[in-house]
Design a protein that fits this description.
about 525 residues; alpha/beta; Rossmann fold; Alpha-Beta Plaits; 4 domains; 4-stranded antiparallel sheet; HTH_AraC-typ_CS; phosphoprotein; DNA-binding; CheY-like_superfamily
């Protein structure tokens, strides 16, 4: 606690100072013998207790104290005086002096009065702190109860009954029953199924909530809270909030380096529609969280008004219509993500694999062939998908490859065997003569039939194979360029660089880092 002693008589000031210092209490003590100096100290430090003589040079101690008396500063005051005039005592009482001492006084008596005043100050501060804490706890409890109710409304259909309406009025949420509103779900991208528990995730959630709170502070008919998966949910009847909510993403990106996913429901018109609005917002949020880009109505992937059934997809595969297959796959994956029953990435994977199994069954009927089981590598690829585009890519690649294997014209068996050997041994010192010897045919004949079937010479095909692998290693590994050259079969680094630029238009270094 802070104490100032103001006394113009040096010996008295020294005695009062020692008396205060003798107290076994934590005290920041200031002393002054001039009213002007004391005013500066009081203005800067706002002491809890002012001990002042009445008669000071330039003004009285009472004038000094009354100068600071105001709405926001209420120090305790002990008045010390050599005068017994009752007028001084009355004036001291009027501005709230804690005590009044006449000189000469006993030092122990003075110290005791200061100690009692400081104990009273501490007690009053503790009481104010306690009341503030109780008010804060009450507010937190009320907020927690409100958020729990809102979460319940989101998770299950809730009829509007009288007691609920009264609660809505208590929380200034009656607009959920009286007006149209939107439900918005917000969180960092990459968590379509909700966040794992962890300190870093909690800090991200807190940072997003801070910015969201500042942005929404000036809007009426708006509430926000965390759902059961630690995503922020905004409910608002204010169209301006709905229109400007994406500005939150810009601010979070700029200051926190976090990419946000946002899902917004259509307008709901009844309180009972909160549950459905929340589900729709979650579906849109999940789509945005899984997407690497924003898809517009003009995207070719969105041109199919209805989904393609497994039987229709099998027909497209039989026709070798790869463009239509790709469009249908994109639409199917988006529809799967948006299904009501889809709660996480595991549900997406199961939905895609079930669809794929039905396509296999339909193709077996159409071709009269027993297709092999879906390879485990495809299952694993789906499990590793983290974005909408990755799911689409894996399914497109599999169906396109399946179509080619089933219906594309067959390549000469010897050429196929040659290509298989090249795919396995491209990193070795493989030659046309070596492959021809392993196939027990003449090199010249292999060269001619290879060019006829593939449209490439043996050497060109091998170079394409090696450069394609080198591109993958450059982008996906930290191997040095000379190590990559050797790994794909080139031990002359300069020749590798020249060939790479001829095939790609870039040097290996330019390709790795971009021009």
């Amino acid at each position: 606690m802070k104490v100032i002693v103001v006394e113009d008589e040096p010996n008295s000031l020294m005695g009062m100072k020692k008396a205060v210092e003798s107290l076994d209490m934590e005290i920041a003590l200031f002393t002054s013998s001039h009213a002007e100096e004391a005013m500066e100290i009081i203005a800067e430090h706002r002491p809890d207790l002012i001990v002042t003589d009445i008669m000071l040079p330039g003004m009285t101690g009472l004038d000094l104290v009354e100068h600071f008396a105001g709405e926001h500063y209420h120090p305790k005051v002990i008045v010390v005086s050599g005068y017994s005039d009752f007028e001084y005592a009355q004036r001291s009482i009027r501005f709230g002096a804690a005590d009044y001492l006449l000189k000469p006084f006993d030092t122990e008596e003075f110290a005791e009065k200061v100690r009692k005043s400081l104990l009273l100050i501490r007690q009053e501060k503790d009481q104010v702190r306690y009341l503030h804490e109780q008010h804060t706890f009450a507010q937190m409890g009320n907020q927690l109860m409100r958020d729990n109710y809102l979460n319940d409304f989101c998770l299950k259909h809730t009829p509007l009954e009288e007691h609920l309406y009264q609660r809505l009025k208590l929380w200034n949420l009656a607009w959920l029953a009286d007006y149209s509103y939107w439900v918005i779900v917000i969180d960092a991208k990459g968590f379509p199924d909700g966040r794992p528990a962890g300190k870093n995730d909690a800090l991200q959630t807190f940072a997003i909530g801070n910015i969201l709170g500042e942005m929404l502070a000036g809007y009426d008919e708006t509430a926000f809270f965390k759902d059961s998966k630690q995503r922020w949910v905004v409910m608002t009847a204010n169209a301006e909030v709905r229109e400007s909510i994406h500005s939150v993403a810009e601010v979070v990106k700029r200051y926190q380096y976090i990419d946000l996913a946002i899902g917004i429901s259509a307008a709901a018109h009844l309180f009972e529609q909160i549950h459905f609005g929340y589900q729709e917002a979650v579906r849109n949020f999940r789509m945005d969280s899984l997407s690497e880009r924003t898809e517009s109505p003009g995207d070719p992937d969105s041109s199919l008004s209805n989904g393609v059934t497994p039987d229709e997809m099998a027909t497209l595969i039989c026709r070798l219509d790869e463009e239509s297959v790709a469009r249908a796959v994109n639409r199917f994956v988006r529809d799967t993500v948006m299904l009501d029953g889809t709660q996480n990435r595991g549900d997406i994977t199961r939905g895609v694999l079930n669809y794929l199994s039905q396509i296999h069954d339909s193709l077996s009927v159409k071709t009269g062939k027993e297709l092999e089981e879906i390879p485990m590598s495809v299952w694993e690829s789906f499990d590793e998908c983290a974005t909408l585009q990755e799911y689409q890519q894996v399914l497109r690649n599999y169906l396109t490859d399946l179509s080619r294997r089933l219906f594309a014209p067959k390549t000469n068996a010897l050429v196929e065997r040659a290509m298989e050997k090249m795919a396995v041994s491209y990193m070795e010192d493989i030659t046309l003569s070596r492959v021809a010897e392993e196939l027990s045919i003449h090199p010249v004949w292999l060269s001619q039939v290879f060019k006829k079937e593939t449209g490439h010479t043996f050497t060109d095909y091998l170079a394409e194979l090696r450069i394609t692998r080198a591109k993958t290693l450059l982008r996906e590994t930290s191997m040095k360029i000379y190590e990559i050259a050797a790994a794909v079969g080139y031990h002359d680094l300069q020749y590798f660089g020249t060939l790479f630029k001829k095939k790609t238009g870039e040097t290996p270094k330019e390709f790795r880092y971009g021009k």
